[in-house]
Amino acid sequence: MPPAGGAPPRGRPGARHRASHLAAHWPIVGGALHCERVPLSAIAAAVGTPTYVYSSAGIREACRQLDAALAGIPHRLHYAMKANGSLGVLGVVRGCGAGIDCVSGGELYRARQAGFRGADTFVGGVGKNEDEIAASIAAEVACITAESDDELRLISRVAVAAGATAPVAIRVNPEVAVEAFHEYVKTGQSGDKFGIPFDAALGSAQLAASLPGLRLVGLHQHLGSQLFGMAALAEATGKLLGLLARLRAESPAAAAALATLDLGGGIGVRYEDEDEPDLAELGRIAREAHAASGLEICLEPGRFLVAGAGALLTRVLYHKRSGARTFVVTDAGMNDLLRPALYDAYHRVEAVHASPLHERVEVVGPVCESGDFLALDREIGAVRPGDLLTLQTAGAYGFVMSSNYNARPRAAEVLVDGARWGVIRERERHEDLVRGERVTPEWSTIA
Ligand code: LLP
């Protein structure tokens, strides 16, 4: 059971939920919640629950909003596919003309399966191994973002061995104070594991330009997630431009091939009653950065493009009371949507058929952990076993962070586009749970 009084109450009485930037794609028609023009009850009836449902129009709209914010300057969005790497979702993002940002060999593979070309692809990540670097070079990606001098040397060795020249960027840790909803999603502060410390970045850029098999094509930063006001982004971008100016002044040859300035991702999304991110200010920062550098401005948003476009559809199994609390047990749990358990994150609960009677409940999953909750101390319309609920704004860091804990098959995923819908990932079956396993190993004996 959830810890009695352990977690702070969420869905504060009096706090009013405000619609997210993609709420229009989740209309209530005839008293029933839809994704675009498809009733969620029809999806549940056809594919069962729990199921992630995504609105194509929502993803396209988010891409359009960010693209519009950067209008007028050479720019490109590279979708951070860590937020949601399902092939069907990648297909919609690719259709918007965005590039892709990968952080592992597996993500690179997925991106290629979804049709992204090397030229559309950035590869980042704090701990790329040699195979991942070699695969990135073989895929002729547009840029490999390095996070240490050791890594630059390894990329150089792998590129030389392959007879190639690897385009690289330096990930600079701008070392600015960042506000975020959780310590785990801050990345651009002094002492963080990410990037190259600001004071060392000039030397790393010079090293990159001097090593064989490397071409220094970009400077990169990423501050963390859920940025709204953009003050930290303005400060960090100012520092990055200062670094660029020094590099150009002190080592013009090292700076000669620079083509892109990547300002990172982290653009905020409204889950509850947060302010919307200041996209106008983001655009101003990007325009200034372009004016000062003459470089193409890249962003690598993950959450902003997909969070509000997705919901987790789940069915109520049981309704029960314990002590002073009322529990709604759903067929989705922390293995399906980890964010509430891991970060105490808020996802709005919305019934597919809303009831006028409200009650204050704990929405919990079937997993044998006290931390298995989806929403605590939340006022929702009264529900009964069999009713359908959604956890909203679950398109980012939802399915990708799901697991098979408690030997629970992972959920199905469905893509909606107007009045049509289709499965983009089948629900796992019990056979999938044991694939690659054996009761008795094929023993090897040490001679
Ligand atoms: N670029 C880099 C280098 C990143 O590390 C990240 C996210 C992004 C871009 C995309 O950030 P976004 O635009 O999605 O905020 N699991 C957490 C979020 C972890 C984010 C990790 N890095 C969550 O569920 O909120």
What is the CA-based Rg, rounded? 23 Å
CATH superfamily of the largest domain: Alanine racemase
Number of strands: 21
Low-confidence stretches: 1-15
CATH third-tier fold name of the largest domain = TIM Barrel
Q: What is the averaged pLDDT score?
A: 94
Main pleated sheet: 9 strands, mixed
Number of helices: 13
Q: Class of the largest domain, according to the CATH hierarchy?
A: Alpha Beta
Class by alpha and beta content: alpha/beta
The level of helicity is 25-40%
Number of domains: 2
Gap between N and C termini: 51 Å
| Bound ligands | ligand LLP
**Spatial shape:** globular
Percentage of residues in DSSP E strands: 15-25%
Q: How would you describe the overall organization of this protein?
A:
- It is a single chain.
- Strand 12 (260-262), helix 10 and strand 13 form a beta-alpha-beta unit.
- The chain has helices at residues 40-47, 56-69, 87-95, 105-113, 130-138, 149-162, 198-210, 231-250, 252-255, 279-293, 303-306, 339-343, 430-433, and strands at residues 28-29, 32-35, 38-39, 51-55, 75-80, 99-102, 121-123, 143-146, 166-173, 196-197, 214-220, 260-262, 296-299, 310-322, 325-330, 349-351, 358-364, 373-381, 388-391, 412-417, 420-425.
- It is built from 13 helices and 21 strands.
- Strands 4, 14, 15, 16, 17, 18, 19, 20 and 21 form a 9-stranded mixed beta sheet that branches. An 8-stranded parallel barrel has the order 5-6-7-8-9-11-12-13, surrounded by 6 helices.
- It starts with 27 loop residues before the first strand and ends in a 14-residue tail after the last helix.
- It is globular.
- The protein is 29% helix and 24% strand.
- With 447 residues, it is an alpha/beta fold.
- It has 2 domains: 20-55 and 307-433, Lyase, Ornithine Decarboxylase, Chain A, domain 1 (Beta Barrel), CATH 2.40.37; 56-303, Alanine racemase (TIM Barrel, Alpha-Beta Barrel).
- Ligand LLP is lined by residues 80, 82-83, 124, 185, 187, 222, 225, 264-267, 300-304, 339, 396-397.
